[in-house]
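Re: [help] complex structure
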Amino acid sequence: MLNIVNKSPFEKTTLESCLRVAQARPNGSALLLIEDAVYAATKGNAVEGRIRDAMKTVPVYALWPDLEARGMQDRVIEGVKLVDYGGFVDLAAEHNTIQSWL
Amino acid sequence: MSFELNGRTYDTDEEGYLTNLADWNEDVAGYLAREEKVDMTESHWEVVNFLREYYNEFQIAPAIRVLTKAIGKKLGPDKGNSKYLYELFPYGPAKQACKIAGLPKPTGCI
Amino acid sequence: MTEATGGIEMEEGQSGIVKKFMFVNRKAPYGTVYALEGLEVVLISAAFDQDVSMAFLDDGVYQLAKGQHTKAIDVKNFSPTYRALEGYDIEKLYVEKESLEARGLSQENLLVPVEVLNSKEIAALMADQDVVISF
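Output below.
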């Protein structure tokens, strides 16, 4: 299952809901942060610990163009994997199921 | 809307402002000026070039009040006033000079 | 066509009544249209010679982050426009300290000079306004 989150973790509880479920069955799960959700992948923010915890069992990806647009390209937490649009497509193709958490 | 110039088609909005900033060149400016019945002199080009520089830096077309102040700072007080700019662009510096400079309509210009 | 920002008549001022307007920005840029719309309203408001300030809270502080490059997402980068505010005589920019800290940001990460205030100070400023408009 590829889980896609696109909302800021400071504005919506989507990231938390997604991680609660994904971490309950981590095998084959991945998390992709896009749009305003990429802020979650930045160092020093209040949910950094949550992302670090998730990465112990679930691979976390962030969409590079969205990080760059927001000026967050130099602040990414170590261990978060960066993908471009091509990588986004690859992730989608690699997983049998995709869920966009709205 | 669009117009043809030197065998190329340029897209504009319904008021004749260039849709794509990157389409701009001096020939296009000349065409847009003729459409506005503005006879381009060195003074006109000075304002048009100033507007393009301002846009490059701030990504907006300035309000007239801001334009006059900024021009005054850069080109001197004899040019940094509404009278001077309206003499060059009688139908409004914001409307005409921005259009000739290939910029979008200034924010707040309704 | 009239120019709300441009009329010479406007510069003369009409009523002469000056009110305190605060525009509160709480949304990140690009994810929604609020940040850009709010900025445009602020620029237009500058024509009316009022006492205008901007406050950046919550995800709104991300609007001022340095180093935004939007070419790859094919959306206009409007962050340079915050630097134009000074030319519009909008010089009172307040950023909430708590919001910055929750995001691991500090004043050096912002693209314009701002005054960083804590929640209590921001609250006092808000209470002192005639009009507060939130985006």
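Residues 34-45 of chain C form the longest helix (12 residues).
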